[in-house]
Amino acid sequence: MQITRASDYAVRVMIHLAGLPDRSTVRQSELSRATDVSGHFLSKVLQQLVRARLIRSQRGSGGGYALAVPANSISLLDVVQAMEGPVRLNQCIEEGPSCERKSWCPAHQVWAEAQAAIVQVLGRASMDGLASQASANLESRYRLHEKPIWITGVTPKAKEKRGLKDVPRA
Asked: Is the model's pTM score more than 0.90?
C-alpha cells in the first residue's frame, strides 16, 4: 500500500496552512512555491480539499486558500480520506458480504488489525501538531551554524591577512 502523490501533496498543503496565523489566506502561487507542487496538480488537490470542507477558497484581492476548520481538529487521516476515500487494506474489511471467505480466512483478522492500526496512527496526528513540528524543524535548520565553525587549513597568519578573527572553539 502506498499513499498517492495527491495525498502527499494535500498533506503538504494542510501542514503549510496549519502553520499560518489564524484567518490567513494564501494564494495558489504561494502554496505552489511553499509546498513544491506544480500549479496544475495543486489546483486539483485544492479542489478536493475544498470539497471535503477542510479548506475554503476566497475570491478577490484578499483571496486565497485557508483552513475551513481549526488545525487541531484536522487529522492526517482526514486529509488522506479526503483524497483517497476510506482506508481499506483489503475488500474483506468492508462491512457486509464483501468476501465470502472472511468468516474462516486466517488473514482476515490480520488485515483488520493492520487497518485499525493505520487508522489509529493517522487519526492521532493533527495538522497543528505537524505544523508545529515543521516550524521547529525549519527554525533549527537555519541555526546549524550558530556556533563558530573552524575552517581547517587556514593558519592564524592567513586569518590575519584576510581580516578574520580567531574564534575560540565551543
From this structure: no
